[in-house]
Amino acid sequence: MKKIIGFFAGTILLVSCGKVNEFTNEFGTVLVLNASPSAATAATTAMNVYIDTLIKTSAALNFRGNSGYLAATIGPRTIQTRPNNNARVNYVNLTNQQVDFNKATTLVVYDTLTSTSTTLRSVRLTDDLSLPATGQVKVRFLHLANNAPAVDITLLRTSATTPDSVTLTNRTFIGATPNAAALSAFSGIPSGTYTIRVKLAGTQTVVLTPVAVNLSALNGIFTLYAAGTAAGQALTANVIRHF
Questions:
Q1: What is the pLDDT averaged over residues 32-43?
Q2: Which of 56, 177, 49, 75 is nearest to 122 (CA)?
């Protein structure tokens, strides 16, 4: 079994999210991920999430933290992230963000601050939370580490009686103008435990020690992403379980 997907891996960090299990005709949901490394010019990049100027997070999101799914009233909303030490600054200020009934989205906040700018980049993804096929999980991969090179990755499913693999080729940083529709897509892969081998794109040069990751949750839906390599933050690979 061979598939082409995309992913950049370092150390696996599993971050579960507080999902909303039921929707009403008044709400959709938004999950916010802080994938922005701390900058030397900033005291902190821990951030709170605001929807229509109301704070929605009970605790600020540190680097690699996520809010879980936050309820938002349907219709056009303003979504903001602000540093927890200065509510007058907006890292992200997105107006007219449509929230639809029974729909879930993920807002990825990424890149770094500078000495002259407190604005971070963001991309809002559509989350298809329909269940995967029997025996599979759904995954997508985001390269959010702006200084990391393009890589190829092999995921070897070690839990299979006859181990098989998923090939992930030439994945690069999502950049300043990411394609939200393409990044939103999940792919089905067999449920199981995988060993991940990371190589420089187009070579056999292994750049990190192989890492094991468990993708065997029943009906699991996951975002795997790379973050770090800037502002003194080491490169890591991380997992959000959506369902």
A1: 78
A2: 177
